[in-house]
């Protein structure tokens, strides 16, 4: 099934409405759609290299809009049903402890979800669920999603087809390594400077 979706994305990237498809996928992937917009972005940048950074910006912008929708889904859905579930399973104390941890490290969790292969939709919905500050959520999402999409666009702009296969097959591990480097730098700067 994934292979068919992938082939369909390749076909769509050649159509005149491909940019609109990218924007819809970037928006929907942030709270419901299973395929990340990176695949669309890759093929669109390869087809229109001169627009690489515009495409990365649009992808980022619509992904953040979708992320805000996911945040509100988490906020409103869990307010009405989530509390009943917590009460039923007697998890209020554990949830409060986890929420406090999320409030302390939420920015890092959102950054990881926005940049790495962790499904961003889970992060957007859970951020609303725990009532993370919407401004912090939005800024962190913008920085992490932007870093991800601009990294893809930059690599393709500079190296074109040579890097396409590497990005498609190894993006998860590349983004995870980069995120770990950023995380280590964050803790070093926070604790030693």
Structure, briefly:
With about 190 residues, the protein is mainly α.
Description:
- The structure is a single chain.
- The chain is mainly alpha-helical and 193 residues long.
- The protein has one domain (2-192).
- 84% of the residues lie in helices and 0% in strands.
- The chain has eight helices and no strands.
- The chain has helices at 2-12, 18-29, 38-47, 52-88, 92-115, 120-129, 134-159, 161-192.
- Helix 3 runs parallel beside helix 7 (134-159).
- It is globular, with a radius of gyration of 18 Å.
- The relative contact order is 0.13.
- The mean pLDDT is 80.
- Structure summary, number of beta strands: 0
Share of residues in strands: under 5%
Element order: H for helix, E for strand: HHHHHHHH
Q: Count up the domains.
A: 1
Distance between the termini: 50 Å
**Main beta sheet strand tally, sense and closure:** none
**What is the tally of helical segments?**
8
Overall pLDDT score:
80
Principal-axis shape equals globular
Computed Rg: 18 Å
Q: Percent helix among the residues?
A: over 70%
Low-confidence stretches: none
Which structural traits does this protein have?
193 residues, globular, 0% strand, single chain, 8 helices, mainly alpha
